[in-house]
Predict the structure.
Amino acid sequence: MASKAIIQYSSSSSSSHAIITTYDVFVSFRGEDTRNNFTAFLFDALFENGIHAFKDDTHLQKGESIAPELLLAIQESRLFLVVFSKNYASSTWCLRELAHICNCTIEASPSRVLPIFYDVDPSELRKQSGYYGIAFAEHEERFREDKVKMEELQRCREALTQMANLSGWDIRNKSQPAMIKEIVQKINYILGPKFQNLPSGNLVGMESRVEELEKCLALESVTDVRVVGISGMGGIGKTTLALALYEKIAYQYDVHCFVDDVNKIYRHSGSLGVQKQLLDQCLNDKNLEICNVSRGTYLIGTRLRNKRGLIVLDNVSQVEQLHMFTGSRETLLRECLGGGSRIIITSRDEHILRTHGVNHVYRVRPLNQDNAVQLFCNNAFKCDYIMSDYKMLTHDALWHAQGHPLAIKVIGKSLFGVDVSQWEGTLVRLSENKSKNIMDVLRISYDALEEKDKEIFLDIACFSGQHYFEDNVKEILNFRGFNPEFGLQILVDKSLITISYGKIYMHDLLRDLGKCIVREKSPKEPRKWSRLWDCEDLYKFMSSNKEAKNLEAIVVEDEPGMFSETTMRFDALSKIKNLKLLILPRYYEKGLSTIEEEKFSGSLNYLSNELGYLIWHFYPFNFLPKCFQPHNLVELNLSGSNIQHLWDSTQPIPNLRRLNVSDCDNLIEVQDFGDLNLKELNLEGCVQLRQIHPSIGHLRKLTVLNLKDCKSLVSFPSNILRLSSLTYLSLFGCSNLHSIDLSEDSVRCLLPSYTIFSCMRQLDLSFCSLLKIPDAFGNLHSLEKLCLRGNNFETLPSLEELSKLLLLNLQHCKRLKYLPELPSATDWPMKKWGTVEEDEYGLGLNIFNCPELVDRDCCTDKCFFWMMQMVQLFTISLNCHPSGDSMAWRVPLISSIIPGSEIPRWFDEQHLGMGNVINIDISHFMQLDKYWIGITLSVIFVVHKERRMPPPDMEQRKKERPSLYIPVLFREDLVTDESDHLWLFYYPRSHFDVSNFDELKVVCRPRDLDYQDLDVEVKKYGYRWVYEHDLDLSNLRTMRNKNSSPRKRKYFTIEELETLETLLNMDAQWKQQ
């Protein structure tokens, strides 16, 4: 039997009370009706989802009285599923169960009862008719002489009536697997997480700590807002404790969030990043617009006002990191949240908690002896007891660990499977050291590593940020000559790192250990270290301008405003002979007209020939050192720099995989690529680059080629067509590029008319002055995104064979007359979308500002049908993958824009527009309808070049819900046609926050702030709630055929409304007379 947990249930009318729970769900059902079909499948689904359900034929011991066991099980269950079948009421046991369930729950917590109407109509319960009427008649005939039984029958009648009025599932004539899936999802939502993110080994001793923390939080009080801090040293279990409590009680609150590692988010994304994390989780809105800290503070104060919330802020290391939530108003969260809210802050520094004025500080203590022994045995012996030969040694090991959970785990795993003699040697070292410092305890595991594994540990400990992605780490470690596959597994086995979802994590305490090891011999002389990671240490080293014989890696994270008032000398880099990694932060922001030369000084006469990674954004020199031999380079990134020339064409660079010289305004040419094994080449924004060296055709492994905005590019080698591995090509804005002379056609054509680029997934030829698109495009069968904006062609070749195409962008193609047949989408890509800028415009068809397009009704049909195919494909993919798959909530907006002035007939709700804002009340569907999967909107809009309406009230805009922007590109050199356009888009149910959304607001305005003077007018709009049956292709085809037929309007023109108002006024005056 499962262990019992204390669950707090709260009522708006009474204080919270504690209920001891043994089971998550009690299922009441009539066995002979459903035991071998529906309920059997239901119990299997509950078990597979980790939901502990009571089942009478498995939990009751034979020979015991059934009634007392059932009553106890009902009292110790959190939720109740009642499966009403035809013969349910004929069982007195079922009726007694039902009456007791109602007695325990209906008045205090009716939401805990979930009725399922298996093969009966709910009205039969309400009226006690049909099978239920017959059953009660038989019971009354049987018990008519028993007054007590007759009173019991009356209570059962009342219970049935109450059940019939509760929200549940009527599953008659519906797919049972689908309904079971929905029921399980609902139960999971109500129950909330149950330590799902915590490995079982982390929970040793946790139950008692959670209970102590609950007392500090005073959960029984529902009137005040209480703030509790959790303090303790690194690795002692602050985060684990906070997460355990959060996952236990979060479901009870209107809003809740767990902001993991506030300090890290603040260092990487500043105040805005932390505010967005809090609001994203509380409001479940990834599109929330926060332009500055004041805006974020305002949103926190307004959007969370009076809501009962649970907020956890993990790993706060500075008082300022708490002020950024509140704009220096320390009491803001407490003032805006509703009664019963709780705020939990974890920090190593108790002073921060006291300064912030918490109500109570809970200090996480080391594990007691019993818990320490259990945790150690779990890791050292893989069991819950001490093996006989190791009893004394175990107690010695635990004495050195001093109850520190992480230290116990690390030591235990280090000793797992090791002979007793080696244990003694390890413990002797601890005894001789006599140190109580946890770092010394953790170092035992480090000292037991092989030399290369030690280097891997130190690399991970000292360097974080983007290089914590597993693939990046492995590539760097491989370059460094280590064995990453084997070495990383060694570190995982010894609990020195964890790997989850493609990322590598290391505990702060272990990271500090690694840095201490690097610094220990010369703590005040960074030039003598093997690695540099801190900005201040880097500046100190640069200022010394002395030789660094041991230094192998400089990896410094970006930090906002670093060195903003400091001049950096670079001479010292010329004195590092063995440097293998040089990854420097962005000292300057992109968009500045020039690099501020006063921010650096000195010269760079030498770079280590051992360099494998040279990532130096805004590199301040015009050339790489002449003596630099880049033969070991794996990645070279000098984006935004002054570089004019890269390397001598005779230099071999066999290992280079990624080359990024984007936004290098002074780069005139790229030298001979030779026999490079390049995979990614980024030349975006190199405005003076006039030609690409023909040797690019030899880069057979090249997958990404970005030439966006190379506006001076006039020569394009024809052998680029040999790049059979290319998956992404962007020639956006290359308007001066000459055609490849491989076609006899005199019309300007950028690419030849035969099969090319068999692996191409994303192709961007926007603003290339193209007059014709060759038929070969129809053979790009792997193509997923095709962007042809701003070109001069009139027609497109057939695209019907491009079954994977999900984006076709034809904005500003002002000569386009005909739209070809669109493909039938058959595959939803589960991988990342890459770096194409069109991601922000979503997926679908976009032909905004194409005034010459003919047969617009036909275009509307094609566009709508194609878009709904994508919605169907997305829905199928979503149903086929677990909810943990990131695809479920990171899908781009499915959207299309075409010329048009009529809303398709399919949209059953149509209205006139007012201004640029659309408001749709969704409260009814959010609360009462469980089966819709999304909403599709249709908007007729026009973009005016001059503002006709008053500018938006900024204070009012702050109160708006998140906006959806019109996905079109506005540029000063584009003349926009002031004609009507139809915007279609689909908004999936998963994007709504069920507890907070009662209105969908769409604000139509340009995305780019530079074009706020443009006026967007919504003329009319329509919407439709989408159900899965709506996506049946036969229904869509039927709708498509009917679109052109006359239809009754559901809206009036402005003139008609004015006339109607006049008539109504006249009628009112006549009645008064």
